[in-house]
Amino acid sequence: MDLHDDARSMAGDLAELRKELHQDPEIGLDLPRTQEKVLRELDGLGLEVSTGTGTTSVTAVLRGGARDEADPKTVLLRADMDALPVVEETGLDFASGNGAMHACGHDLHTAGLIGGARLLAQHRDHLRGDVVLMFQPGEEGWDGAGVMIKEGVLDAAGRRVDAAYGMHVFSSMYPHAQFLSRPGTMMSASHHLSVVVRGQGGHGSSPHRAKDPIAATAEMITSLQTMVTRRFDIFDPVVITVGIIEGGTRRNIIPDTARFEATVRRFSEASAVRLREGIQDTLRGVARAHGVEVEIEYNDEYPLTVNTAAEVDFSASVIRDVLGEERYEEMDVPIAGSEDFSRVIDAVPGAFIAIGAVLPGLDHETAATNHSPRADFDPAVLPDAAAVYAELAVRKLEALAQA
Ligand SMILES: [Zn+2]
To answer: Which of residues 277, 300, 323 is at a domain's end?
Structure first.
């Protein structure tokens, strides 16, 4: 059987499905229209399909025709389905007009895994175990993977999955149609920092009679950047980016309060506690110096995405064999983004794989990045993604059956 040939014959279909998903994006954990499309596409493939209660997820189990009834093995394949609150500026004829945008390419992930499901269904007679297809809402900060794990996706086939694979397209950074991964840490852990600075309002002309929360806030933000460079090893980097800053109503009024929010990223467990403490020390110290109060909220979002080395090796060999030797390369540095697929491969062995989907003719170093209103992804990677999803499952189940 040649899954890649079969996948290539689906290229037009998958590109159409991707367009349909792209045109009608939804945000968060509640994606009813996207779920409906996925259910429609899976219909008739002979899968055991269930939907989530805490989120509009779709879990589909494909029972292999050549499974070992005494000791069946299971592989999980994951695609996320949610979009972002970005107003699209791609100018595509299938661009979204509803204020949300598939600016992170999750429409391609969904279409690619539908392709994988079709391939696996066509070749189910040879399949030596079961496959769990995980269609996940709410990757973009809603912890959809966490919700699906609580609802049992890792045991959907009746037992714990043996290995899990996920993929992510990139509109820039990586060369066209290149597949990449790396053993160990591939993506950062993320935290959410929210800070309220309470001073004492007054007349802008007489700051000595007030306690200015704006000046304190400004110093806190710059001090956090200095703290990062002075307290952390440059070879174990951390990132703090303030994305929201609010305070005041008029230029000559010192307000009572100001606030800001930041995203915080780290690449090791070793820096977790030091980072939280460093942020708290810095903010409290600056607050004391200015005579203001500070309220700090610091929450964990997604853990480090840590690939199982053996599963990266396995994935690399499958990709090279299916697509060609030159189509896989090891990523030299991790990605600074974060992913809730981290929760899946924290629980079971697995690998996350990046796909360069820059449009042909654009330079991947300068093309609009994921999350940009101008991010665009080449649908030509869809049949390759579908074939790799399917082959990872077929070959892993084969290897597990022989082990
Ligand atoms: Zn994404």
So the answer is: 300
**For residue 310, what is the domain's CATH number?**
3.40.630.10
Q: What is the pLDDT of residues 46-96, one digit of tens each?
A: 999 999 999 999 999 999 999 999 999 999 999 999 999 999 999 999 999
Give distance in angstroms: CA of 281 to centre of ligand 1: 33
215 CA → ligand 1 middle, Å? 36
Residue 352 CA to ligand 1 centre (angstroms): 12
> Domains in the chain: how many in total?
2
Rounded-to-integer distance, Cα 88 and Cα 194, Å: 28
Q: How far is the CA of 383 from the centre of ligand 1 (A)?
A: 19
Of 300, 330, 359, at which residue does a domain stop?
300
Integer Cα distance of 111 and 3 in angstroms: 16
Ligand 1 centroid from CA 27, angstroms: 12
pTM above 0.85, yes or no: yes
Domain hosting 224: range is 189-300
Pairing between β-strand 253-254 and β-strand 130-136 as defined by DSSP bridges: unpaired
Taking the C-alpha atoms of residue 76 and residue 79, their distance in angstroms, rounded to an integer, is: 10
